[in-house]
Amino acid sequence: MGEPATASAAGRKTRVGPYEVGKTIGEGSFAKVKHARDSRTGAVRAIKVLDRNHVLRHKMVEQIKREISTMKLIKHPNVVQLHEVMASRTKIYMVLEFVDGGELFDKIVNSGRLGEDEARIYFHQLINAVDYCHSRGVYHRDLKPENLLLDSHGALKVSDFGLSAFAPQTKEDGLLHTACGTPNYVAPEVLADKGYDGMAADVWSCGIILFVLMAGYLPFDDANLMRLYKLICQANVSCPPWFSSGAKKFIKRILDPNPDTRITIAEILEDEWFKKDYKPPCFEQGEDVSLDDVDAAFNDSEGMVKRETSFTSQCTAQEIMTKIEDACGPLGFNVRKQNYKMKLKGDKSGRKGHLSVATEVFEVAPSLHMVELRKTGGDTLEFHNFYKNFSSELKDIVWKAESDASKKQTK
Ligand code: 3AM
Questions:
Q1: Which end of the chain, N or C, is surrounded by fewer C-beta atoms within 10 Å?
Q2: Which of 231, 259, 275 is the C-terminal boundary of a domain?
Q3: Which residues surround ligand 1 with Cβ inside 6 Å?
Q4: What is the average pLDDT score of the chain?
């Protein structure tokens, strides 16, 4: 793969492939968004810049790649269009439709809450976008105000569909900390982190958005994260007196803490409050779209000689760590442990000094852990030989090794 980004000389604009990249429009939770112009057509675009190593190393590449591929096929009037994906050695660039009407919520900040008829028009567009992406197997999982943009005609455009896996979500004190700091828009079952259905979780977030549009404030809010979690999980919604009875009933059906009984999109489309002035979306299906760019961006350019690898295991994190420690002694490696990270260092010096390896155990799902191993010093070939011996020591806890997946990616 080439290096499409060229650094600018003084006064000249940076180029990424055929795009002239201009000023930074904003900084989202996991990426910078920059203004760009396609030098072939003059079209104005927005470019989202992501750290490629972070993406390839930390998240489920296959899932992200699949969702991004699907997003390229999606052309919907209420979804920010993804035109092209490019990559350099260190960055992934997502070339997006430029949406120039600002964020929907700025309207509320500037002129206060919306009337029901106006809120309903935006909600129709939001549900159309979400329903369409769900029908293609893409879930948002992180719907919140900053993902709702307006174009110059006032139409709603949802951004970041299929990108939720990029958003850093860390756990401290057993609590999920979402990228925006507070999880006001996140469904209770997502907070409980017990595995959830992306469709029902997106419907919940749409309900919070509708509430905020019409109320001008959040249904569940507390500066203390623990108390906020409780409020969300209890889902005791109290609607302001100016909501009509139809709106109140509708909101309560959406903000049902039980995802199994929560209203579905099919049922939303049949709701009396929702149906007022509803026009089903009309748009063209996309023509032939090439996915070669997505393939190229997500494949590992280091080819056969990789400095990092991973496997998944169904054992507990503690069992995995103990197993790693036990395996290291006979292989001549010292171990230093800190939380779920370990540093392994070879006793003997190799071709490029001592081989050192960093490992980290991540919880992918409650009964599934991913273990990453990264060479931090020494020779890459020695790392491969180490890993061969190491993985045969660990074979009874390895569920799936990365090589199975990477063969598929680089075929
Ligand atoms: O930093 P602010 O909140 O002003 O609206 C988005 C946000 O702006 C904007 O980039 C910032 C970080 O997400 N943004 C995101 N996607 C965009 C797009 N496709 C966009 N602006 C225009 N077109």
A1: C
A2: 275
A3: 25-28, 33, 46, 80, 96-99, 103, 146, 149, 159
A4: 83
